[in-house]
Design a protein that fits this description.
- The chain has about 350 residues and is an all-beta fold.
- The protein contains no helices and 23 strands.
- The strands form 5 sheets. The chain has a 6-stranded mixed sheet with strand order 19-14-15-16-17-23, with no helix packed on it. It has a 5-stranded antiparallel sheet with strand order 5-6-7-8-9, with no helix packed on it.
- β11 and β12 form a beta hairpin.
- The radius of gyration is 26 Å and the shape is flat.
């Protein structure tokens, strides 16, 4: 390989360079590279080919001469996928045993790359069973999350957990990555989505609609992440959701389950319920269709609260109202429920006038 000068503007690389900071990041013409040199003048150069976001291939170290080089990159990660076809019958007297059951195992990797933090490698293995003897399918997802320090040192001990569901995804809502699993609906029910924190493996919310984010930002020009932001999320679903398992009190029917959560806020789960109507034609189940925040300082989308004077504080969300549009699979009219925020929590203020009670859940 011919010697060339290291030039950030031209994005070229030299095989023999002078003293430079160890681990310098440079984007080259052929893709993302991490350039590292040893200490002292005349140290030789190593180029580490970084993996792409969607595919973890072997991380290769290119040695361009002798000298002080970076440690070898971690070994490649791999996982297998498979499919199994099974003979079965549907239980009828005249049913023939044929290939009816399909069991799939699909493994893949995703990477959560947050500035200044270790890479989070998420391995998810999705198991799915389907058959023409039943409607819908059965699924389970195994997660494994490992932290990989930027300096290439040993990865953390894997965090492993699993859940019922299908179609695992890694999502980022603002600055809070989440793992989402789908609970597929069938027989008239709608899909439900479970969201997990990749740092803890804990459930942070269940929703049948897109989670509603709320962030509090200072109006000052130099605000934002430098001054800190407050992030909260509302997850909501009704009894028509395939993931709904809440039970209302005697004489009550469930309307919606809500979870108020955030990166630094323990999930608050509540059940909204109402008296069972005397007219059966107006009895649920109910679905959540949309939600938004309203109140002074909130933007038109009902997601961002702009405040003045210093870093945002949790007390500034007090007084906001969560509006929840719900619809019944019955003859009852669609409704908009209004739930107030107080002391950074959902409260029942004003719900009694709507003939709704708020019940804490574990």
């Amino acid at each position: 390989m011919q010697s060339r000068e290291l030039n950030e503007e031209a994005r070229t690389v030299s095989t023999h360079c002078g003293q430079r900071p160890f681990g310098r990041n440079v984007d080259l013409q052929d893709g993302p590279f991490r350039v590292a040199t040893g200490a002292g003048s005349g140290a030789h150069l190593a180029i580490i080919l970084e993996p792409t976001l969607m595919s973890l291939n072997l991380i290769t170290v290119l040695t361009l001469g002798a000298g002080n080089l970076v440690a070898a990159a971690p070994p490649a990660l791999s996982a297998s996928s498979s499919i199994e076809l099974r003979m079965a019958d549907c239980g009828g007297e005249d049913e023939d045993r044929t290939l009816r059951e399909i069991i799939t195992k699909n493994a893949r990797f995703d990477v959560i790359d947050r500035y200044g933090e270790p890479l989070q490698v998420v391995k998810h293995v999705a198991w799915r069973k389907q058959s023409n003897c039943m409607e819908g399918s059965e699924g389970k997802v195994d997660f494994e999350v490992t932290l990989h320090p930027r300096d290439g040192s040993a990865a953390s001990k894997p965090l492993r957990f699993n859940t019922e569901g299908e179609e695992p995804l890694v999502l980022a809502y603002w600055d809070w990555p989440m793992l989402r699993v789908t609970q597929a609906g069938c027989c008239g029910s709608e899909d439900g989505y479970r969201y997990f924190d990749p740092n803890t493996g804990k459930l942070v919310g269940v929703s049948s609609v897109e989670p509603l984010p709320l962030q509090v930002i200072n109006n000052a020009a130099d605000s934002g992440l430098e001054q800190g932001t407050i992030q909260r999320y509302v997850f909501a679903h009704g009894a028509t959701s395939a993931a709904f398992d809440a039970e209302a009190a005697t004489g009550q029917e469930p309307v919606a389950e809500l979870t108020f959560s955030g990166p630094d806020h323990a999930p608050q789960r509540v059940l909204l319920q109402q008296p069972v109507p005397s007219n059966d034609a107006e009895s649920g189940p109910w679905s959540v269709r949309a939600m938004r925040f309203v109140g002074e300082g909130i933007d038109e989308q009902g997601r961002t609260l702009w405040v003045d004077g210093g870093p945002p504080k949790t007390a500034q969300v007090d007084g906001l109202t969560l509006e929840l549009d719900v619809e019944c699979q019955c003859e009852a009219e669609p409704r908009t429920l209004r739930v107030r925020l107080s002391q950074d929590r959902l409260v029942d203020t004003g719900l009694k006038a709507q003939h709704i009670s708020l019940v804490p859940m574990r």
